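Re-running the complex after MR caught last week's input typo. The corrected sequence lines follow. Everything else is unchanged.
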Amino acid sequence: MSPLKPNSLTERDLIERSLKGDRISQRNLFDMYSAKMLAVCQRYARHRAEAEDMFQEGFIRVFANLDKFKSNGSFEGWIRRIMINTALKSIKKKSFKNESIGLEDYQDRDNKVNPEVFSKLSVDDLLALIDDLPDGYKLVFNLYAIEGYSHKEIAETLQIEVSTSRSQLVKARRMLQRKIEDLQKIAV
Amino acid sequence: MKHIDNLFKEKLYNQEVPVPEGMWEKIAPIAEEETGRAMLWFWFAGLLTLLIGGYGIYKMLSTTTNDTPDPSTLVYNEQLPSESLTNEVLEPIVIDRNEEAEILKETSIEKVEKSEAQPTLGVKKSEPLAARTSTPTLGNNVKQIAKSSINNIVENIPDVGGQPANLVITKSYVNKEGAIITQSNLKAGLFNEDPVYDVIINSEAKDINAGALLRIVEPLENIPLPSFQKPLKKKVLSITF
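Corrected-run output:
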């Protein structure tokens, strides 16, 4: 979706106008980031309807807290954080219990993939691969590998141990790598 | 070969998906309401900050005034009992003669202010500036008259070697001829109901008499400049040297 932001208005202008209740500016901000943020929500949700609920709630929180945004940071990064936090709030955390046990079985070996093979996979294929992961693996992989969170941040956000976050990531990578190798074999 | 994390991030971090029609319409009303609420808190917080800041400045000014007493401070005493008002003199304010002219020029006149809601006058040392009130009836004209009167008197007071003089406000009741009435007549009600307030400067130096600076008569429109000295001199109860 193309942004409606007029050339003369900066992102900061739109934020200030939105704070004053200007509906057009609010709409412009929404249009600028909605497509990306829905994609973020989709990666965390189990299905499309859940993603849309997260997205809707996330944007309401964005506008409710707009006055708290500090202009010295990235606005997109700020929105993304809110979206992720909203998504995480709606996800059960049961799957994280006792996950640190058995870490030795999933040693983080050389998780490298042939880019040529990988390039043949579409975005939907990748999303499907992530979606097939158990909930805990999926969350940690999304947060660590794609969003760039540290294990410490993940542990704080999900209220789990840092070691749990590490083990979830190792297991997620192993599963993804195995599936990609399987797809490669099928293609050959 | 690339790390699996990087491969996923490259393709998915900036991924976009079409947003269904009508999604904004679901969000907009709630967003508007929430933004309005946030702004309300914003303004409320701003107003609160202003109030607290203003109170802080007020307190700071008050403290500063108390810490450095101004010898020419004249304020009103709201608690004088009416029975003791006749020929009453309150605590004098000490003015250092060396600084007298400067003080009178800069501060004294500005501080001879009165509120219509406070019919009794008194003199106190070291009261906060904020306690002083002014009223339109004691406006710039009155101050100008008083200022020129005081300056004239000060000029005519001989140099007494830096000894202080007193600036005093007295409250009296006068009869129709303008004479100060006795306590017994006051009780009998044989006086004008409205008191007069005399602003006087006084020194006990041998050749200096009390000097009346200003007489303020209620209603406050009438502000005759006094020309008498003796009646006022005896009102001065205490003089500090």
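None of the earlier attempt is carried over here. Chain B has two domains: 19-68, 70-233. The CA atoms of residues 24 and 82 of chain B lie 74 Å apart.
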